Write the structure tokens for this entry.
Amino acid sequence: MSKSAILSSSIAKKYWMALTGLFLCLFLVGHLIGNLQLIFITGEEGKRAFNEYAHFMTHNPAIKALSYLTYFSIIFHSIDGIMLAIKNKKARPQNYAYNNPGANSSTPSRYMAVLGTLILVFICTHMANFWGKMHFDTIPLHTKTIEIPNEMGGEAQKVELYLTTKGDYVAAQQFEVRNETEFYVKDLDLKMGEGYKDLHGLVMSFFGQNKPGFDKNDLAPFAVILYMLAMATLGFHLWHGFSSAFQSVGVRVSSYKHPIEIAGKVFSVVVPGLFAIIPLIIYLF
Amino acid sequence: MKLTLKIWRQKGPNDKGQMVTYPIDNIDGDMSFLEMMDVLNNQLIESGDDPIAFDHDCREGICGMCSLYINGEAHGPDRGVTTCQLHMRKFSDGETIYIEPWRAKAFPVIKDLVVDRSSFDRIMASGGFVSVNTSGNTVDANAIPVPKADADNAFEAATCIGCGACVASCKNASAMLFVSAKVSQLALLPQGQVEAADRVLNMVKTMDEEGFGNCTNTGACEVECPKGISLENIARMNREYMSAMVK
């Protein structure tokens, strides 16, 4: 057979849809576990855990390779999906005057391309809000403020500390920050260590409305609502997509059909559901 | 029973076509849908109009000739039946019924409700066959042992009558259910192994070339199929295709 069929034949296109889709499901699980640290670990400990995790995710070479595979999957899944949708549209040039598709198929299964497009829009905004800032912007570093009681009486002295990648805290006033995260001894070319970008603080002020200790944000309720709507869209996409992927690669045979369908429905409710409650909890508490 | 029929009329392949409304009365609930169409056609002929063209042959639900997209569903609202086996008792007095031809690029309308399904024949010709010995010492097919489960699955796939309801119901006008049934009925049996890889590659290639859409696994085809051909056949075809591709 011609090698081009590996990309162009209708069935091969579905293999690619399925494999990239299932890989993205795995990515979702990993991403979710990371995000859950935002609500399950509180205080300075939570902030540290999340920022250390974010640093690990942006610096580990193995994760870097996985992230390129993820970008590739998102792009390939989108392009392949658009190509499939165009071919499918062409296959029925004239529509029925009266159609009743609800009698034979689920609503999400008929709107996969629309749901997918909405998810792609969400991914773009989501990456601009967090991924882009984490990778390319100068954002505040992880700091901790401690109070040293004034033994002579009077006001306590507030000291700002940076958390370093070695795990210790250093007094902020002794250093200047260069190259976004590097600590240098003031006026000297002496690098003393590296800090963590405070992604935790970025998330908290993004979804928390004027939270004490974080940047003021009046738009947080809209961010929370839009995020939750995006997760609902993702849920509908997965409601059909998860088990559909197994069908496309030919493993949804009678003995596995039921378990795969149940797993798909559970996955599509639990994973987007847990993603969605994180900003809500940040907003409310 | 009094009904309002909204029927697609199209003089020929190049005519634009339109929905035309026909009121009809005195329809008995025990009439089949095609008999109701016969009554309407008699009236049209008597009044000097052109009767409505529609496909039909055996009227026993086994030939796969009748079609019709009735009230938004292939072969109408009933399950597991072709249009000829659909009875008017499934409709209520005073109801409006929409009757349209199968809609697919690969099934062009010839006239009114008749579509050209020869694209299915071309798919079959590209691989839906097995080689047999014609030299005179033919082996009886029953002499070859076949596991019972395989024989049953092959038989179920072979019950496909090629009516095209799967294509008509599919939001993508995909022929996957039809092609997968034809691939399965042969791939499951020892006689079908010789051409197994070429068969699936060629039939899928022809299917794509004919302009059918892709499978989104909505399952509409399985629900509307008058013979209850299972989606499992599509999963099997996907496996067959994968193993043929790596060969």
